[in-house]
Amino acid sequence: TWKWVVGPMFLYLCERLVRFWRSQQKVVITKVVIHPFKTIELQMMKKGFKMEVGQYIFVKCPAVSKLEWHPFTLTSAPEEDYFSIHVRIVGDWTEGLFNACGCDKQEFQEAWKLPKIAVDGPFGTASEDVFSYETVMLVGAGIGVTPFASVLKSVWYKYCHDATNLKLKKIYFYWLCRDTHAFEWFADLLQSLETQMQERNNAEFLSYNIYLTGWDESQATHFVVHHEEEKDVITGLKQKTLYGRPNWENEFKTIARQHPGSRIGVFLCGPEGLADTLNKQSISNSEADPRGVHFIFNKENF
């Protein structure tokens, strides 16, 4: 038995040593941005740090807890000279990080007062394969939209730098949210992309649909009153927010008709129930003929 145990244990110890060594490397917080509804963005730099789109890291803040490590998806693009995460303040540890960064104070915080941060990673996810397809469907549920912030930023950098050599030609983006609080920081990114695409006369490159799955009666009345306005009352985007849940069968069939004979990547960051639905739709809407349309499902659950 010991022969079978020693090998895996040796590899495990090596992996733990590598992770310990990486976590001891110096990390500098270059900027802290406070977004609405108690969401903060930490922009950091670390020597030798290299990332791909949609990857995640483990973060430890000794000022809050010397033992706790928490995973966060990177929201920056590989083309940027920093890496960033967005943290929603929803518990004791995130509240401690919020206070340690001085976000509870009104005055400007000096850089040397910011807490020390340890980072382990980055680690890969399915989202890294997004550039392997000409057409992709990106589906984010709630906070599951964070990896697609990195993807959309990177796509835009690549598109501006050399659009002719970019294999990716069409993005269908779906975002499902229960309440309006989650829209704030990500809507800014979509507004920027929407404006820049229109300036380059290629507004069709990115098609996005935002679904609000939960609202109360007073909100519904407000939405109806402002429905005829040019921009959406919630996000400020030209694309109006939809209410309820998508009819996934219709969405898949429509995309299949528009891209016959294509391999279409379906990427999800969301709950297991939605993953089952999208997986079934990917299978049922793929043709048996190798020359027909095929949906390739990739998921990242939380």
Automatic annotation (TrEMBL):
PROSITE patterns: FAD_FR. Its main location: membrane. Pfam families: FAD_binding_8, NAD_binding_6. GO terms for biological process: defense response; monoatomic ion transmembrane transport; superoxide anion generation. It comes from the Eukaryota. Keywords: Cell membrane, Electron transport, FAD, Flavoprotein, Glycoprotein, Heme, Ion channel, Ion transport, Iron, Isopeptide bond, Membrane, Metal-binding, NADP, Oxidoreductase, Phosphoprotein, Transmembrane, Transmembrane helix, Transport, Ubl conjugation, Voltage-gated channel. The keyword Coiled coil does not apply. GO terms for cellular component: monoatomic ion channel complex; NADPH oxidase complex. It is found in: Cell membrane. Catalytic subunit of the phagocyte NADPH oxidase complex that mediates the transfer of electrons from cytosolic NADPH to O2 to produce the superoxide anion (O2(-)). In the activated complex, electrons are first transferred from NADPH to flavin adenine dinucleotide (FAD) and subsequently transferred via two heme molecules to molecular oxygen, producing superoxide through an outer-sphere reaction. This is NADPH oxidase 2. It comes from Asarcornis scutulata. The gene is Cybb.
